[in-house]
Amino acid sequence: MLDLATLQKFLDPVFPGLMGVKLVEVAPERVLATMEVRPDLCTSGGILHGGAYMAFADTLGAVGTVLNLAPGKKTTTTDSSTKFIAGARVGTVVTGESLALHRGRTTMVWQTTIKNADGKLCAVITQTQLVLDGAG
């Protein structure tokens, strides 16, 4: 199984790294991470942009799926549903926890909750990851 440091090194040079996603805990059934709410990730009102919530959650579900892939397999997101509940202000840190709802042979389903620095629920994202052959 891939460890946290290896996964973080994979994320750092690509979009999740650009966003500032920091993995805290990784396991086949749960992924925990943080992300600083920077001005460049916010709306004009200084609140974390909805797309940033979605990209953060998509990253965590993908990491969870990668932890469960058989050798020679890869993954892609097929669908994602987001419910926005509260905001996160610039200069704070959000925490995302992604839990496996289904870890199958051809699909995996993850539900991510994102909370603001006060522990208030900001968003709930459910996504499906398709498991693909690694060739090609």
Strand % is 35-45%
The Cα radius of gyration reads 14 Å
H and E string: HHEEHEEEE
Oligomer: single chain
Overall pLDDT, averaged?
96
- Number of β-strand runs: 6
EC number: 3.1.2.-
Organism: Variovorax rhizosphaerae
Pfam families: 4HBT
GO molecular function: hydrolase activity
Can you describe what's shown?
- With 136 residues, the protein is α+β, with helices and mostly antiparallel strands.
- It has three helices and six strands; from the N terminus they run ααββαββββ.
- A six-stranded antiparallel β-sheet has the order 1-2-4-5-6-3.
Brief descriptors of the model:
alpha+beta; 43% strand; globular
Task: Summarize the topology.
Elements: H1 4-11, H2 15-19, E1 22-27, E2 30-36, H3 50-68, E3 73-84, E4 93-103, E5 107-115, E6 121-133
Antiparallel strand pairs: 1-2, 2-4, 3-6, 4-5, 5-6
What's this, in brief?
Helix content is 24%, strand content 43%. It is an alpha+beta fold and 136 residues long. The chain is globular, with a radius of gyration of 14 Å.
